[in-house]
Specification:
This protein has 122 residues and is mainly β. The chain folds into two domains: 57 residues, no CATH class; 34 residues, no CATH class. Helix content is 7%, strand content 47%. It has one helix and nine strands. The strands form two sheets. The protein has a seven-stranded antiparallel β-sheet with strand order 2-3-4-8-7-6-5, with helices on one face. A two-stranded antiparallel ribbon has the order 1-9. The longest helix has 9 residues. 25% of the residues are buried. The mean pLDDT is 93.
Length: 122
């Protein structure tokens, strides 16, 4: 995927106990990648990347913006989602954007995961 699109494809660096639950991609219309990781105690990480969002506001689920968060050296926005999960949005309203959703983990761990994302294929 990273070789086929002109935007950075990110991958989280996760400790033992995590695995890919499912994923899908497409190259049409700018490209899109969605991958879901399952972790200990049923924690999940979902990462949407590319041209996955066409609505104003950036497709971030409802919640409150908490502030800035590092996203592989860039500045994203941390969102405390209404369902108790955490969201990290990068380039939220752009044609190409990234959205990390973390469920079952705390804010500090979410920040660490976002900070540790690595661009692959660059």
């Amino acid at each position: 995927m990273a070789a086929a699109v002109d935007w950075p494809v990110y991958c989280p660096v996760l400790p033992d106990g995590w695995f890919v639950e499912n994923g899908q991609y497409r190259l049409a219309d700018g490209g899109r990648l969605e991958i879901v990781y399952q972790g200990p105690q049923r924690a999940t990480i979902t990462l949407d990347e590319g041209a996955f969002c066409t609505i104003q506001g950036g497709c971030v689920p409802p919640g409150d913006d908490v502030g800035a968060v590092a996203f592989d050296g860039q500045q994203g926005t941390l969102v405390a989602l209404d369902d108790g999960s955490w969201g990290v949005a990068l380039d939220r309203e752009a044609a190409i954007s990234w959205l990390l959703i973390v469920t079952g983990l705390d804010e500090a761990t979410t920040r660490s995961i976002a900070r540790g994302l690595v661009a692959v294929g660059t």
